[in-house]
Amino acid sequence: MVTRILIAEDEKPIAELIKLALTKEGYFCTAAYDGEEAADLIERESFDLCLLDIMLPKIDGYELLQYAACLDLPVIFITAKTGVEDRVRGLRAGAEDYISKPFECSELTARVEAVLRRRGSVPEVIRLGDITVDRDARVVKKGGREVTLTAKEFDLLLYMYKNKNRALYRHQIYAGVWGGDMLGDSRTVDLHIQRLRKKLSLEKTLLSVHKIGYRLEVYT
Amino acid sequence: MVTRILIAEDEKPIAELIKLALTKEGYFCTAAYDGEEAADLIERESFDLCLLDIMLPKIDGYELLQYAACLDLPVIFITAKTGVEDRVRGLRAGAEDYISKPFECSELTARVEAVLRRRGSVPEVIRLGDITVDRDARVVKKGGREVTLTAKEFDLLLYMYKNKNRALYRHQIYAGVWGGDMLGDSRTVDLHIQRLRKKLSLEKTLLSVHKIGYRLEVYT
DNA sequence: CTTTTTTGATGCAATTATGATGCAAACGCG
DNA sequence: CGCGTTTGCATCATAATTGCATCAAAAAAG
Prior knowledge:
The structure is a homodimer. By secondary structure, chain A is an alpha/beta fold. The first copy, chain A, has two domains: about 5-120, Rossmann fold (3-Layer(aba) Sandwich); about 125-215, Orthogonal Bundle (Arc Repressor Mutant, subunit A). The first copy, chain A, contains eight helices and twelve strands. Chain A has helices at about 10-25, 35-45, 60-70, 85-95, 105-120, 150-160, 170-175, 190-200; strands at about 5-10, 30, 50-55, 75-80, 95-100, 125-130, 130-135, 140, 145, 170, 205-210, 215. The first copy, chain A, has a five-stranded parallel β-sheet with strand order 2-1-3-4-5, sandwiched between helices. In chain A, α2 (about 35-45) packs parallel to α3 (about 60-70) and α6 packs across α8. The mean pLDDT of chain A is about 85. At the A-B interface, α4, β10 and α7 of A face α1 and α5 of B. Chain A binds a DNA duplex through α6 and α8.
């Protein structure tokens, strides 16, 4: 599966810039230059996320947002407006997030990832240095050669990836991977982390955060 | 530091459900099963957000809301009532948002995040001169190079930042970071402050206030 | 100016957290 | 059922943290 993103932005250079940045991250992007075009695309294709400029010709962002909401399509607003009012209005209306121009590409991708993470959708094939993780096939390769992970190890890796660059508490990891509450001071999470580290040589990437838990560090 | 959420809900199963969902998202939750308990907790602990059932035993949601408002604690109302009247009354009274039972966990977490974001109590990265603090990753950098802080040091820094430009009493800091009361004239806070100062060269920023405690001075 | 109180600095020891490893129970599969 | 695999527990080894004790320096009080 691929993650498809619709970019509705009337200023072509900005749209191009966004498209470039997100394509680089492995997303499939389509640009629409006015509201009508955007609505049309939303209807015809199935996107995973939508970046909407609030002020669009023909149909404005708020209207499109309502439309997107019906399809359970998450929306991030892009706008020049920085006022708190607009921000609140956007979020109240149901936008998942909000980013104002001008913005850093890193901020944009971070927000996109955050929204997709919240939504539970991550790219199908994940790359992590010389490691490749195919979610569907549940196959992990390191340097081209397959490494067999157990079910729990795989789930754990995926969970850590979904929450990369975040220090996660043990109980959080446990809840996310095993489900339910972790009782007492079980070392289960630690153990599985260790096994993952060993199998994939992640000593420098899957870091322990003392007294907290672990963090998968991915440089972007 | 952690984001703490108080859940005031008399129906235990619902409270548990909410707690589970939010814990999974990385929040630290405390549940109160009646209004009195909730008021007590609000007073003693410092929460970042409060989920209040409108109909609670002993003290009702509206009253608690007023109390929370004094402490600048944002509130999301939870209720079975779906009438427009209640909704309006809740928002009038100053609730940040409103969610009616039954609800999807995803909706709940989305609203929680939206409120925290709106509040600005969740800037992902804090800047302090040449120091960067990434809350999520629990990583602190000074001049681009990472400085490893211990859990307590990190929490302390965040607490001081949250209360920047305010002289804080030792017992206050202790309560905020360690939780619970500081007994006697422990030098624990002093020690940790010193270590923070040293690690981040905060001699001119993290000032001691004689006979009181400490203050983080941030020029903006 | 001296005394007292408060804060800063430092070494150290107790506690606690994490890593490593062996092993046994539970599980899955033919 | 029987086998290999997976999973999590118990244990020991190592590392990090935290708070205390002590002494030095600074600030306030008398």
